[in-house]
């Protein structure tokens, strides 16, 4: 730990957790990693993490739901991409599935259409084939299937 050798390891660990939770919600896995990075003994880390979960300060399901809503709304990401992101943050698969239940296929399609509509004006200077290729590529990078991306791009280009 970077604190002096006289510092109480539990107090230092508690401060680390509180500091990490001040800016934004974090998963238990992320916080465990921060404590490990600061050489907090595993026994102390686990006890504090359990206590923070008990108090509701760490809630991986709430984190996953918030993550899904935010990333889908701002980035238009699909369920598949959102699940991958949550796995990298250490969220359990059953919690990921529960959080993703709130996203339906219709919402994904609405998000994809919004992305295409937003991008279409900037692609007006390109020929249709280039614009279509770029739009489909953008949707594919966000996790949309090729078939859905092609259909939405075609429909949106026809209606504009």
Q: Could you characterize what this model shows?
A:
By secondary structure, this protein is an all-alpha fold. It has helices spanning 9-23, 28-37, 42-54, 60-75, 79-88, 93-100, 105-119, 128-141, 146-159. α1 crosses α3 (42-54), α5 (79-88) runs antiparallel to α6 and α8 (128-141) crosses α9 (146-159). The mean pLDDT is 92.
State the shape.
Answer: elongated
Mean pLDDT over the full residue set: 92
H/E order of the elements?
HHHHHHHHH
Number of strands: 0
What number of domains?
3
Please tell me the CATH architecture of the largest domain by its name: Orthogonal Bundle
Looking at CATH, which topology of the largest domain would you report? Answer: Arc Repressor Mutant, subunit A
Subunit arrangement of the protein: single chain
Please bin the fraction of helical residues: over 70%
Task: Give descriptors for this structure.
mainly alpha; Arc Repressor Mutant, subunit A; 9 helices; 72% helix
Topology:
Layout: H1 9-23, H2 28-37, H3 42-54, H4 60-75, H5 79-88, H6 93-100, H7 105-119, H8 128-141, H9 146-159
Helix pairs in contact: 1-3, 2-3, 4-6, 5-6, 7-9, 8-9
Give a quick summary of the entry.
With 160 residues, this protein is mainly alpha-helical.
């Amino acid at each position: 730990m970077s604190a002096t050798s006289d510092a109480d390891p539990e107090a230092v660990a508690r401060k680390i957790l509180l500091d990490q939770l001040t800016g934004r919600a974090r998963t238990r896995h992320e916080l465990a990693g921060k404590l490990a990075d600061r050489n907090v003994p595993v026994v102390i880390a686990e006890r504090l993490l359990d206590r923070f979960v008990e108090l509701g300060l760490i809630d991986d399901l709430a984190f996953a739901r918030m993550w899904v809503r935010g990333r889908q709304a701002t980035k238009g990401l699909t369920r598949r991409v959102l699940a991958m992101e949550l796995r990298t943050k250490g969220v359990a698969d059953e919690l990921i599935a529960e959080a993703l239940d709130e996203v339906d296929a219709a919402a994904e399609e609405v998000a994809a259409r919004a992305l295409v509509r937003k991008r279409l004006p900037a692609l007006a200077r390109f020929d249709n084939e280039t614009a279509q290729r770029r739009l489909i590529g953008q949707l594919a990078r966000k996790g949309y299937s090729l078939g859905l991306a092609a259909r939405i791009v075609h429909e949106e280009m026809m209606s504009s």
